[in-house]
From TrEMBL:
Its membrane topology: Multi-pass membrane protein
Chief place of localization: membrane
Annotated spans, Disordered: 475-554, 575-600
Keyword field contains NAD: no
The entry's keywords: Chloride, Ion transport, Membrane, Transmembrane, Transmembrane helix, Transport
Biased composition (Basic and acidic residues): 483-495
Protein's name according to its UniProt entry: Chloride channel protein
Compositionally biased residues, Basic residues: 503-512
A molecular-function term among this protein's GO annotations: voltage-gated chloride channel activity
GO cellular component: early endosome; Golgi apparatus; plasma membrane
Superkingdom of this protein's organism: Eukaryota
Protein location: Membrane
Amino acid sequence: RRELISTAAAAGVAVAFGAPVGGVLFSYEEVSTMFPQKTMVRAFFASVVAALTLLWYNTSGTGRLTMFEAYTPDMPSIAEYPWFVALGAIGGMLGALFVRWNIAIQAARRDGTAFRKRVPIVAEVVAIAMITAITSFPSRYTRVLSSTTIRALFHSCEDDMTLRPDMMGLCAGDEPVLGTELISLLMAAALVRFLQMTITFGTGVPCGLFVPSLYTGACIGRCLGIFVRTFSGYLGLPASTVHPGVYAMVGAAAVLGGVCRVTISLVVIMYELTSALQLIVPFMLAVLTAKWVGDSFTHGIYDCCIRLRGYPYLHEPDDFTFGTRACDIMDEDLEFIYVKGATFGELLAKVRDTQFGGFPLVNSQQDKSLVGYVHTLQVREHLEKLVSVGIREDMRVHFAKYSQSTEAGAVDLSLLVDETVLRIVPETPLAQVHNIFRQMGIKVVLVARFAELVGMITKKSFVHHLESGHIGHITEDPAVEGRGGHEEPQALGEKEAEEGDKSKRRLGRRRKSDGDAPNVPGDAGGDPAGGEQLRLPLAGLAPGWQRKDSRRTSLQTMREKFVQAFSKSPVTTLRTPNSLVSADGVSPQTPAKPKGGKKSLQKWGAFSTVSWRHDDLRDFHQHTSCVLARGSRVERAMLAIIPWLIPALVGMLTATSGSLVEVASEWLSGLRFGRCATNWMA
């Protein structure tokens, strides 16, 4: 499914902009979390098929893929590059403003809000369409299709008259029209389109981002180009080399880059969109500037939408600083399914009423040795199927494969156990946990110490801790209203300073330096001098989130079990990252040599190797190998062709639908102005 989404995204961008290479790069840069070589080749193949289909339909009537091909007679001079940087800064600020306003509007109208309860999605879409039509009618630049205006804004007045489109009053012969009146009209059109896209994006119809961003940037860039040409004439500089159409193209790239925060793919898309190879460097400069300026205020629109909807998406850990471990954020209050002891009705009621996606399978209530993981949906479907064939609810259920004794007449559910669930130890760094969730695509990992389950980390809980500032230094995006910002945590030792107790201040400083180290000498259970127990906030953590008191006990218990498993001596020293700690919680002056030999680890030898592959993927590979080994030539040929037929079909269907939309829009637009062609495909 992920591969198909990446392929479809590449084909869609290739059709929308006539940019097959840019579509592949956009899918790689913005859409796909994982983009292996196989996905890249198939996405490229789908883009090629989409481009060929688009050429065959020839909806533009020019026989070319380029939508806004523009002629640029001169290369921009070095003196113009600061203006391109200024366009990038303007695009970044407009993009940040759009993200902030649009996310606030989306938050006010999402499901469950008072607005959504009163206004259905269909009524909202109809209202936005009416508002767009009414506000677009007064100006000649917003009345026509956006692509028509963008094409005119991109072109220079020095183009050949036979190749030049309708310039809509932007040119006076071979010279561009200058003056404040045109600047006022273009700025008003940019403002109207910017406000329209602010309320449109995120509604029930997927629209209102790419083309309106290009339109807004093109209007602003054309205005800046007119200003630079006029200003150069006042200074006595050669104004004829300044082309407002070039500034329109750079401005379009800047605003779209400020909204989406894409870089490489956007530069390639703009090149394929305009065929302006000599503007690659201005495009790159404006897009990078827009990204830097926009990132200083908010994240991109896609990232903010993901956070607003609560999707468990993880970015690359380039900006993260992890100083904690898996045991610091794992969930210790778990619900289990035991190997035996439950009835059919109890288990069915449990999987029907729960909101969890699965349960860890352990031996018993006393023995928490991890056996595997049971997925709720699979168990519920299997049990409901058994109910339909007459299984009584008072019958016993067990997992015979993992039980030393079997129960006569019990229902065996051993085939529903996922033994390949990923297991980690409590000391696993969170940087590694982050890579596990991001690169492997799994949703849950179990934390076990010597085969005993001690906790669980889900992808959603990890993202929650990350965004809330509990781990790393990432906080909520300020664009998401009402969710960002934390107060500064109280400094360690502040309470003791107010009370004037020097001994407590020394204890606070020692705890601050020791971090999560167990009890130190002189600190009997955290009660200095036998007085009231001292509770200090944890440094570096956001307020309102303190680790449970049971977590320290849990870590101490794990240390004791670690010592007992490898030594027969009741008191053995164990070196930790913070200090030298013994099993009874006392730090000795000199480390004692462990007595006795290591305990056998054979009881854990039955556990399989950790693997993230699921049964369906393994079965698919087994089926593929069987077909390749014993299948006929036709079966082997079909197995090799089908993975390529799907991207080809996606590309053809995407190009067909895009062509139909474009032809229908042009035909309806011409019909509105009295130009009714006899052949609507002409």
